[in-house]
Every structure is written in structure tokens, then in C-alpha cells.
Design goal:
The chain is of the alpha/beta class. The chain has a single domain (about 5-190), classed as Rossmann fold, CATH 3.40.50.620. Helix content is about 35%, strand content about 15%. The protein contains 8 helices and 6 strands. It has helices at about 20-30, 55-70, 80-85, 90-100, 110-115, 125-130, 160-170, 180-190; strands at about 5-10, 35-40, 75, 105-110, 130-135, 150. The chain has a 6-stranded parallel β-sheet with strand order 3-2-1-4-5-6, sandwiched between helices. Strand 1 (about 5-10), helix 1 and strand 2 (about 35-40) form a beta-alpha-beta unit. The radius of gyration is 16 Å and the shape is globular. About 40% of the residues are buried. Bound molecules: adenosine-5'-triphosphate and magnesium ion. Adenosine-5'-triphosphate binds near residues 12, 14, 15, 21 and 162.
Length: about 200
């Protein structure tokens, strides 16, 4: 098989991965004719660390692996976990460039993440190494930093967030159809979210 040439990097905490993530990944892949979309699991999400307990990286990776297992063109990324320490997209893009030297890279984000792009570590490097792709999320419209050539991809607006799903799980409300069945199975098997504070 030839090496993939158009690769999307879709990073997140994925605590847990939900249908909003999957719908985004498959639609961006389709719209931009990407060979691969990597759902890269953040090791220590530095913008979230300290504000709440984060599910261990190994559990989040297992859920993402379950989510993408039967989806063509989507893969779970573990490079940030393997690297250890805080996860910076600039470093992950450098890693992907070395893994796939002839690839065009795309950094995929929801608009909430895009709005804060200039707070990212070495964001100019991110913009130089990849084409920036944004999808809208439900909620208040955000202002995108306008000096970058954002590629806007239309996806269904699904009002789903991991934060809301964790609250539902904590209350014993069902996550069915908000996460896929294989993800539900990992959550049940590992006893995740029931005791989240
Ligand atoms: P949390 O509530 O814990 O922040 P989240 O649902 O925002 O979780 P993240 O792991 O923070 O999920 O997000 C990873 C990426 O997916 C971000 O770029 C985010 O904007 C995007 N994203 C998350 N949910 C959606 C959604 N429903 N539709 C489109 N993009 C989404
Ligand atoms: Mg988020």
C-alpha cells in the first residue's frame, strides 16, 4: 500500500470520544479527500490539566481505538501518549512529517478550539506545517483569528460534548447513540465515568 499522502490530524482529549468527533472526522475526510484522519489522543492536555480529573490516557486511547476500529480511513493516534509529557500539536505535526515525508498535513479543529488557536504552543509552526481546517460546533459563534487561510468544512452540528457526556454518565443517564456501541463497551468494561467528580 502506498504511504498516505493527505493526512488530517484531529487532536483531542476524547474523554470520551463521541459522535460529534466521528461525524467531524469522516466528513472532513470526505470533503478534503484525505487518505487518513488520525484521532490523536492527548497525553496531558495542557489547556485542561488541573481543572478536572482526566481519565487515564490508556483508557482514552482504548475508547478511541474502539470508536475507529471499523471506520475506513480513521485511526487512533498514540504518538503523543508515547512521547509522554504535555502534548503540543506543533510537535505532533513534526512527528507526522517525519513518518510521512511526502504528505500534506491538515490540522482539524472545532471552532471553539480554533478561536483559541493563537494561545497554542508555537502556533505559527502549526500554521506553517499544516493547512488549518475548522468545523462549526453548536453554540455561540466564535471569532477565528483571521490571518490564517482556514479551510471551513460543513458538518452536521451535533450538540454533544465530552463534558456533557461525563455528567450524564455520572448521573446514570444513558450514553447510547451519543457514543458508539464499541465505546460503550469499553466504558462498561473499564468502569469509566461512574465515579468522576
Ligand atoms: P470537553 O467537553 O471535555 O472539552 P469535547 O467534546 O470538546 O470535550 P475534545 O476532546 O475537547 O472534545 O475535542 C477535540 C476536538 O473535537 C476539538 O477540536 C473540538 O472542537 C472538536 N469537537 C468536539 N466536539 C465536537 C462536536 N460536537 N462537533 C464538532 N467538533 C467537535
Ligand atoms: Mg473540548
Amino acid at each position: 500500500m502506498p504511504a498516505p499522502t493527505r493526512i488530517g490530524l484531529f487532536g483531542g482529549t476524547f474523554d470520551p470520544p463521541h459522535v460529534g468527533h466521528l461525524v467531524t472526522a469522516v466528513n472532513v475526510r470526505h470533503a478534503l479527500a484525505l487518505d487518513l484522519v488520525v484521532l490523536m489522543v492527548a497525553n496531558v492536555p495542557w489547556q485542561k490539566a488541573g481543572s478536572r480529573p482526566i481519565t487515564p490516557a490508556a483508557d482514552r486511547l482504548a475508547m478511541v481505538e474502539a470508536a475507529v476500529a471499523d471506520v475506513p480511513g480513521l485511526v487512533a493516534g498514540r504518538a503523543e501518549i508515547d512521547a509522554g509529557g504535555p502534548s503540543y500539536t506543533a510537535d505532533t505535526l513534526a512527528f507526522l512529517s517525519s513518518e510521512y515525508p511526502h504528505s500534506t498535513l491538515f490540522t482539524i479543529v472545532g471552532d471553539d478550539a480554533a478561536a483559541g488557536f493563537e494561545t497554542w504552543e508555537r502556533y505559527t509552526e502549526v500554521a506553517a506545517r499544516s493547512q488549518l481546517v475548522v468545523v462549526d460546533r453548536p453554540g455561540d459563534p466564535v471569532v477565528l483569528p483571521d490571518r490564517y487561510p482556514w479551510i471551513h468544512v460543513e458538518v452536521p452540528h451535533l450538540d454533544v460534548s465530552s463534558t456533557d457526556l461525563r455528567a450524564r454518565a455520572r448521573d446514570g443517564r444513558p450514553l447510547n447513540y451519543l457514543v458508539t456501541d464499541p465505546v460503550l463497551e469499553v466504558i462498561a468494561a473499564r468502569g469509566l465515568y461512574a465515579e468522576v467528580v
